[in-house]
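Why does residue order matter? Because the sequence determines the fold. Keep that principle in mind as you read this record.
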Amino acid sequence: MQTLTLVLDCGSSLTKVFYSPGEDAQPQMLLLPPYVVEQPKEQLLYVESQNRPEVRPERSAWIESDGICWAIGYLAGQRFNATLQLKPGKLEAAIYKTLAAVGVAAQTLGITGGSLVLGLLLPFGEYADRDLYRQAIVPALQDFCFRGQSLSFEVQHLFCKFEGFGLLSASVLGESRRFRKSAIAVLGYRNTSVVCLDEDSDPIGLTTDLGFARMLEAIQKTNSGLTDTLLLARCVHRAGLKVNRRELLPLVKNDRFAQQRLETLAQSIPIAQRSYWAPLTQLFAETMGRETEQILWVGGPSDYFRPLLQRQFRGPALVWGESLAVQLREQVGSGLPAEAIPRLLDAYGFWFYVWGRCLKIHALGEVSVHA
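Structure:
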């Protein structure tokens, strides 16, 4: 029976998935827009009937579970105009995204079922929901449809960890020195989490709503027409802290006021940076003690603010996952823009953790594990 290993990070701006068949140590990567929207089955079947035979499964992803259908990713955003959902937690959407990711992987690999090794990363503030996720996803995977095709997977191993764990596990493997007190700062689109680790106690932390979206909202308030927040996020990231105006051109309407719009936009970004940076540094000061020896920085915004973070934290060792980034680019991400790599490292490192744990479990002859 075919075994599929799959991990996912259901980010609010991008769903990151790595998967492989059997014990293949080189995963395939799947990236999906974050959109999820319920749709009538008849509408989805009609869309399916209009697809060309060569359409990739991720471009037309929809699932049916318990009699309800959901469009996921590109289909939800482009065909059904789904919007970003930043207020609710990730749990319910993670269930539908998991089914869609497994469906895409199954159709890509040409399988309809088998054993599944599954991994999910959750924000630290939602980590307590991991048992609810397990209770929902295990039976759901046993009987669901992807693009009208019936699929059935038996969850053999399920690993739920908090965001940042993937980079942490990869850094532990590649680091000879051990740190007694470490911190993980996960800067995401929807929220920011800080997790403090001590060799002598369990992890403690918190998740706040200080996501990168907060800074983007400040930019939108002083500029008209910036309705595509994901495009805004990409362009602002590429423009950098010093605001390269050329990278902002895709955001500016090409009319007689284009130059004035560009100037207003460029001037608004440093103001938004400062208004976002102030509470962010206050959060770090309140959660990371002076005795912190190492800080792991996770997520795209941490890469964006890297020069400021390096000046802010001169004492602790700062981990950005450079060696993991090189491996990711060489294995699966050679065509990705540079700013995309930091967003993928946590899920990529987590895949190797899950894959390695399963090898050890099989070597010991254990039947199943839920961790």
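The chain has a mean pLDDT of 92.
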